[in-house]
Structure formats: C-alpha cells, structure tokens
Design a protein that fits this description.
This protein is an all-alpha fold. Helix content is about 75%, strand content about 5%. Helix 9 (about 200-230) packs antiparallel against helix 11. Keywords: Membrane, Transmembrane, Transmembrane helix.
Length: about 300
C-alpha cells in the first residue's frame, strides 16, 4: 500500500487523528462495543484514504479530525434521542453512509480537490452561501428527526427511518463535497494560526497556572487548619456536618477559586466564609494579572522589531 511507503511525514498526523477517534469512539459508545468499533473503522478508512489521496496536504488532517469528531457527537445525540430503540446494525449503517458518501465523492473529484487541500481558493461569498445551505439542510434533517414521533415506532421501523435520514445527509454530503473540503481546510488553517499564537503565550499561561495552583493549595491548607483547630465542624455537606480532610479542603479550594460552586461542600462558619471570600478575591486578581500579562506579551512581540532596529 503506497500510504505506508516512502515519506513517513504522514505518520504523526495520522496517529494524532486516530488518537482523537479512539477518544470519540470511547465517549459515544453507550450501548456496547459495536458502535464504537464502527466509529473507529470509519475513522481508519477515512483518514487512511485521505492521507493516501492528499499526502501533500497533511494540515488538512486536523480539520478532517475535528469535522469527524463533531459528526460522531451530533449523530450520537440525535440518533439516541430520535431513534432510541433502533438496532445496532441500523445505527452503524446510518453512521457509515455519510462517511462513505463523502469519501466516494472525494475520490471521484480528487483532481479538483487537490488544489484546495494544498491551500488554494480562499473563501468567497459563493462558497459561504453553498456551505451555509448544506449546513441548513443538514440541520433541517436533524430537526425533523427530533420533531417527528419516530420514537413511537417499533425498533425495526425506527431503524428504517434512521437509515433514511442518514441517506438524505449522504446525498447532501456527496453533492457538497467541494464546499465541505474547503471548510475543513479553512478550519485547519485557523486552528494552526491559533496554535502558533498559543506558543507565544506559553510563559504567561504557565505562570498563571502555577499561581493558580499555589493559591489553591495555600487556601486548602488554611481551610484544613481552621477546621482542625475548631471544636465544632466548620463545613457541611448534603449529609450534614463533615470533618474536612485535606482532599476535601483542596477540592473546596479549587471550586471556590474557580467560582464553580458544586454545592457538595459549604462553610457554616463566618470566619471560614470570609476566608473563602478572600480566596475568590485572590482569584479575581489573578485573572486580571493573566489578562495583563497576555496583553503585555502581545504588545512586546509587536514592539520587538522596532527595538531591534533602534539598537542597530
């Protein structure tokens, strides 16, 4: 197979996309192993075929992986809600149909699509109109599946309705393959630009994370010490008063600092409440510090060429 011959530059992105497929397959597999295996098989077939057809467009893999993960998630949500009693065979067939239709259309139009995958044809109003129409029609199929009382049918008829809806999406995907490929390429380019910017922000991000951890640990220790020195419990949970362990204290500290508020542990003493308020204030100050450092890093990056010129 030519995919596994010659240049191995495809190996890292292929493994990365398959790694994402493994995570997605494990997440959507609520009813056993059959459907996750179908998802993995579709990913292996799809990514392998795309790498073979477009070995020069490895960045295209990123957009394809995101698109595949999104499709698997939406298919699972809509399918389980609209057709809860459909058989595994019907579910797997319905999932594979749009994937196979898309790959068939890609292979048929590979000569025209190769230029797009290589980074050509920037978005224009016609492209946006066509991809918008495809997304709208696909959304209408999903809405119809959720709105019609298909879940009242028997298991076999639910399977038939599920496959029929998937067949409609397959036709739409095959007809709009050019626009879909351009959309996936655009997504990959945007995500690549975001990753390059994230590299420049690694130092402020690492500093922010370190300070967040420091505040969380320090306040967790203070909560634990206060509870240990008190004669009466300072914290309560759904079952009543609790004796705070360090694990509980660290959990409560992180929840307080992030202002999530799960509601599984709460203070019942005014002093500890003030201590929690102080941690929230420290978290807000830390958030302001993070915004300031990110802004300062961006400004410094813009000023660096000018400073170099001045030193010359």
């Amino acid at each position: 197979m030519r995919l596994f011959a010659g240049d191995r530059a495809w190996l890292r992105p292929f493994l990365a996309t398959m790694g994402l497929a493994v995570v997605v397959a494990g997440g959507v597999g609520d009813g056993g192993l059959f459907f996750p295996l179908v998802v993995l098989a579709a990913a292996a077939l799809g990514f392998g075929m795309l790498f073979r057809l477009f070995p020069e467009g490895l960045d295209f893999a990123l957009g394809t992986a995101v698109g595949f993960a999104t499709y698997a998630a939406l298919f699972t949500v809509v399918g389980q809600s609209a057709y809860p009693d459909a058989s595994e065979l019907a579910e797997g067939t319905a999932f594979l149909l749009p994937v196979l239709a898309f790959l068939w259309a890609v292979r048929r139009n590979r000569a025209r699509l190769r230029y797009i995958v290589a980074g050509g044809e920037p978005p224009d109003t016609e492209h946006l109109r066509r991809i918008g129409r495809f997304l709208l029609l696909t959304a209408l199929v999903a809405v119809a599946s959720l709105s019609l009382p298909a879940n009242r049918l028997g298991p076999s008829m639910q399977g038939v309705a599920m496959v029929a809806g998937s067949a409609v999406i397959s036709l739409l995907a095959a007809r709009s393959v050019r626009e879909l490929v351009r959309l996936l390429v655009d997504m990959a380019q945007v995500m690549d630009a975001i990753s390059r910017r994230a590299v420049a922000l690694m130092v402020p991000i690492a500093t922010y994370a370190a300070l967040f951890s420091l505040i969380a640990v320090v306040f967790a220790c203070l909560f634990r010490i206060a509870d240990g020195l008190s004669r009466a419990p300072l914290f309560a949970g759904p079952g009543g008063a609790i004796e705070l362990t360090f694990r509980d204290a660290l959990h409560f500290s992180v929840v307080t600092l992030s202002t999530v508020g799960y509601g599984d542990i709460w203070p019942v003493d005014d002093g500890v409440r003030l201590l929690g308020a102080a941690e929230v204030l420290a978290g807000q100050i830390l958030l302001l510090f993070g915004f300031y450092e990110i802004t300062r890093s961006r400004l410094s990056a813009k000023e660096l060429p000018g400073r170099d010129d001045e030193t010359r």
